[in-house]
Amino acid sequence: MAQIPSPTIRARRLRRELRRLRDRAGLIAEDVATDLGWHRTKVIRIEQGHSRVTQDDVRDLVTLYKATDEEQESLAALARQARQKGWWNAYGDVLPDAYVGFEAEASSISSYESLLVPGLLQTEEYIRASIQAGRATADEDESDRIVAARLARKALLSRDVPPKLWVVLDEAVVRRMVGGPSVMRAQVARLIEACANPSVVLQVLPFSAGAHAAMSGPFTVLGYDDELLDPTLVYIENDTSTLLLDKEPQVARYRLMFDHLRAKALDPDHSGEFLARVMDDYPK
């Protein structure tokens, strides 16, 4: 499966480029608003991603910023691509945040999970059991849509050039009974299968490792082929909110945390052996 450009990534790149051109032109938001007859908040909202930028907006901005012909052409293309629909838009009611759009074009995904199997490695039965536990009010149709959305996400592992997926799982993830023994046995078997995938590295962080750098909870680091165009992101989720962090000190902190987790976890070979023993604990 070929990789399809992500509108979410294109929109982010467009905002960053517009901000870069404004800085190069030596203008502040108030200057831009005055020259274009806009309210100051429109400039800020465009650059922060809180307002969709139109083709006319881009044309007015690049003209004001005295962008080169090549820059104008590139930004016009980005604006067109940013307005396209990603496959995840069809599931906007059950995929409420922008994470999937950023995940869709990542070249590397480094994830620490302390509670659940990461979505890209979940079986359908595990998905349904976790929905039932976490969404007591979800009806059958909503549950089916959530399942369909999560299964669709997994297609990126079948891309012609899939992302490098590196997962550190707390032992609690495979010990906690989700959906019953048969569901867990199949899920652990899926994890063992993933260990054989050359684009996946999976490590288990056993209870015996003791305290570690990520006691505060799970996180995901998304990396891209061109760090200058698309800087690394850190994604954090809890019951009431999600965060996407892109400031270099924040990203560096989570990268270091992930390095510490990898060092404390079992190596990939021993992790596979550990999972095989866990699977035997779940009866057929």
From TrEMBL:
Superkingdom in the source lineage: Bacteria
Pfam families linked: DUF5753 (PF19054), HTH_31 (PF13560)
Chain coiled-coil ranges: none
Segments forming domain HTH cro/C1-type: 18-72
Gene Ontology molecular functions: DNA binding
Name this polypeptide is given: Transcriptional regulator with XRE-family HTH domain
Organism phylogeny: Bacteria, Bacillati, Actinomycetota, Actinomycetes, Micromonosporales
